[in-house]
Amino acid sequence: MSNQAANVLAADFGAGSGRVIRGALDGRRLTLHEMHRFPNEPVQLRDELYWDFLRLFYELKQGIRKGVEGMPGRIQSIAVDTWGVDYGLIDGAGRLRCNPRHYRDVRHAKSMNDVLQMLNEQELYAMSGVLPQQINTIFQLFGELQDSGINSKDSTMNPDADTRLLFLPDLFNYYLSGEQACEYTIASTSGLLHSGEVKWNEPLMSRLGLPVSLFPRLVHSGTVLGHLSDDLVRELRTGPMKVVSVGSHDTASALAAIPATESNYAFISCGTWSLMGVERDSPVLSVQALKLGFTNEGSVNGKVRTLKNRSGLWLLQECKRQWERENRFYSHEELVQLAVSAGAHQSVVSPGDDVFMSPGDMPKRIRQYCERTFQPVPETVGAIVRCILESLALEFRQTLDELEQITGVRPPVIHMVGGGVHNRLLCQFTANATGVPVIAGPVEASSAGNCLLQYVALGEVGGLSEIRDIVSASFDTEMYTPQDSECWQEAYGKYQQFNQRKQHQQ
Q1: Contacting residues for 266 by C-beta, under 8 A, at least 6 apart
Q2: What is the rounded radius of gyration, in angstroms, for the C-alpha atoms of the chain?
Q3: Is 374 left (phi over 0), alpha (psi -120 to 50) or beta?
Q4: What is the dihedral of CA 173, 179, 183, 188, to 10 degrees?
Q5: Which residues form the Carbohydrate kinase FGGY C-terminal domain (predicted)?
Q6: Residue 441: closest CA among 482, 412, 414, 478
């Protein structure tokens, strides 16, 4: 590694907001400078929910413009990471056919049911390693092609042979560089790869009538795709810049930036979603893993992330948005303080319940859920926030227990990264509920991993072990040790009983 490396830009798109970060590596220390931050809100069009890709690409360009201000020609590369599963289709002329659908679009539930009439869950799980969920690309794409009247067995109704599917980070990369490719970690969220392999699952596509021609080449994390296009160089007044595929799934980049010294740990990447799991050499494909809701996705080091996708801070974000519509404005710090003052362990929800899936009046839904399940109804803002945070922590405890069941190993520590680290109450609740220490940080793990994986591609950093050493030297972490163990163990027992009653009712 050279003593001082060039600057890079990391575009990190979350499901609620995005940011463009300039990374600078000086010796063994990485510094991150936020150049541009912006909201990312879906657009409801009648009964359809879309991402505003054109606005997001505009914001990406603003981030690049700000990132090169005062230092023309000194940004060596750029890379994009986003959430999983969503995609866009481009035609043979390179035009986006339509704005990408949001994974919460109501159409996907029907598409999933249609696919499961053709393949049962266990067969699909064994073929792809991905838990069947209505958000998955495989169901989204099947529904889109069905709605378009496309059936690959009828050649007259096939999409143009030059039409390509690109996952969202790959779509950004295409409009940055002109290169069409799908990076492995983002593709691994789709349900369209062979389980645990960097290979499109063509037999599965054939079973479902999905045209194989839609899918471009797969590339590994750390691949230099090309260069920023000449028209963008002129428009943004920047020098030449490489476009790199990193861990294009934000969770994959975030896990690369976990400052772990041990190998046996659980992780929680906590943002709008909370993804909790372990890294393994091979996927877990047992009937029990399927029943418990675990999926298997790719890591930047070629390993597999066996994880459970929880709803994360989505409920809290939606509550905050609703209160703002009602002209009640709270900072995140104020919401945490209100939760601290509220009564402990009054009521719980299942954050991943279908009733909480779509945007809308979340405080009302939480109150109705508690009333319907014969629990105390949280009426105040603090009580609602506390209910959400305690419910998330108890879900993490349940997930840790389930990881032990399917792998035979109970991780002795949890590394939590992402925006949820800002919520110190959630971090402490997680340690309390799980009974194991929680090491929180870095917050901007996705951006840090994105930047450092670019340096690997540029030959400035040796690999994942060196990345984690640099992260340890560059960012502070905080240790949360379990407290109030007896109280939380009692709360977990009630939580388990609550879930069992709920399952019987269903």
Answers
A1: 276, 277, 278, 400, 403, 411, 413, 414, 415
A2: 22
A3: left
A4: 100
A5: 267-457
A6: 478
Cis link prior to 442 (omega < 30° from 0)? Answer: yes
408: exposed, middle or buried (Cβ count in 10 Å: 0-12, 13-18, 19+): exposed
Q: Are 311 and 353 in contact (CB under 8 A)?
A: no
Q: Is the pLDDT of residue 156 over 50?
A: no
Three-state SS annotation for 13-81 = ECCCEEEEEEEEEECCEEEEEEEEEEECCCEEECCEEECCHHHHHHHHHHHHHHHHCCCCCCEEEEEEE
Residue 124 has pLDDT above 80, yes or no: yes
Say what the pLDDT of residue 38 is: 97
- Check: pTM over 0.85? Answer yes or no: yes
Q: Measure the CA–CA gap between 491 and 433, rounded to whole angstroms.
A: 8
- Give CA–CA dist 153/212, Å, rounded: 12
DSSP 95: -
Partner residues linked to 270 by β-bridges: 274
Cα–Cα distance between 467 and 143 in angstroms, integer?
A: 40
Which residues, at least 6 apart from 291, have a Cβ–Cβ distance to it below 8 Å? none
CA distance linking residue 87 with residue 214, whole number of Å: 12
Render pLDDT for 254-302 as a digit per residue (tens, 0 to 9). Answer: 999 999 988 889 999 998 889 999 999 999 999 999 999 999 999 999 8
Task: Return the closest-CA partner of residue 13 out of 76, 78, 106.
Answer: 78
CB 273 within 8 A of CB 106: no
The CA distance from 15 to 419, in Å, is: 12
Q: Which two tokens stand for residue 387?
A: 């209910």
- Tens digit of each residue's pLDDT (9 = 90 or more) over 321-365: 999 999 999 999 999 999 999 999 999 999 988 899 888 999 999
Paired with 251 in beta bridges are none
- The token pair at 289 is 């893993």
What phi-psi label fits residue 484: left (phi over 0), alpha (psi between -120 and 50 degrees) or beta?
A: left
Q: How far is CA 288 from CA 135, 295, 296, in A?
A: 21, 12, 14
The catalytic residues are 250
The total of other beta-carbon atoms located within 10 Å of residue 295's CB is 28
pLDDT band at 502 (very low <50, low <70, confident <90, very high): low
Number of C-beta neighbours around residue 264 at 10 A = 12
